[in-house]
Amino acid sequence: MSIRHWPEGERPREKLLQRGAQALSDAELLAIFLRTGVAGKSAVDLARELVSRFGGLRGLLRADQTQFCAARGLGQAKYAQLQAVLEIARRHLGEALAEPAGLKDPAQAKTFLRARLRDLDHEVFAALFLDTQNRVQAYEVLASGTLNAASVYPREVVKSALRHNAAALIFAHNHPSGIAEPSQADRSLTRRLKEALALVDIRVLDHFVVGEGEPVSFAERGWL
Predict the structure, then answer these.
(1) pLDDT at residue 121 in the model
(2) DSSP, residue by residue, 14-55
(3) The pLDDT value given to residue 6
(4) Which pTM does this prediction carry?
(5) Edge to edge, what strands does the sheet with 216-217 contain?
(6) Whole-Å CA distances, 130 to 92, 104, 137, 172, 206
(7) Helical residues (DSSP H) of 71-207, grouped into ranges
(8) 71-97 pLDDT, tens per residue?
């Protein structure tokens, strides 16, 4: 049966408008994105099939272009639309950090950095550059590496901080292995960066390590 023949309260779009997006299942949210199904399957049926095939929404969102487009009911246009939606979400998070009130809660930065870094398959070291009011001036990837390491040079980090006229920084890097526990090398690098930045009166507020679960905060561990 086509979705248009369902009771109005059970149609994903109408359900969202009546009860809010949080009331929908993963498959129902995906069905709204898909808009239409395929022969013999409604959009919701197709969405359920895709959620199962990719092991959940995250698996679908992480799929590369070849994997995504090979699935029934998807293709280049849907892939482009989905990538656009993901980038809109990332930019929305970034704009929220740059509001006049500045960072009101470290959780804001944590959420943004997790969205940026968690699903990368290679290690990336990045920073948020903040002004004196803790407003974000820029987000920048400072180094990209292999699955095991990224080369970060304190001199280049200081140059970037001065270029952005930053008063403070928040660092973050991901562990593609999924284990967010910082290594001794991570702690040593953070100390070196903090010392180098202190010479030009720039503070390091935190360093987040992003893995599968909750990001680990150096500040919360008392390491800064």
Answers:
(1) 82
(2) HHHHHH-GGGS-HHHHHHHHH-S-BTTB-HHHHHHHHHHHHT
(3) 57
(4) 0.69
(5) 136-144, 124-130, 168-174, 203-210, 216-217
(6) 17, 13, 5, 14, 12
(7) 76-97, 106-117, 154-163, 184-198
(8) 888 889 888 988 888 888 878 776 766
Calculate Rg over the CA atoms of the chain: 21
Please name the residue that has the structure tokens 């001199």: 155
Give, in order, the Cα–Cα distances in Å from 33 to each of 5, 52, 119: 19, 17, 21
Q: At what angle do helices 26-34 and 12-19 cross, to 10 degrees?
A: 120
Specify the length of the chain in residues: 224
Q: How far is residue 127's CA from residue 110's CA, in Å, rounded to a whole number?
A: 12
Low-confidence ranges of the chain (pLDDT < 70): 1-10, 94, 96-104, 147-150
Burial class (CB in 10 A: 0-12, 13-18, 19+), 11: buried
| Amino acid at residue number 3 | I
| DSSP for residue 200 | T
pLDDT at position 66: 92
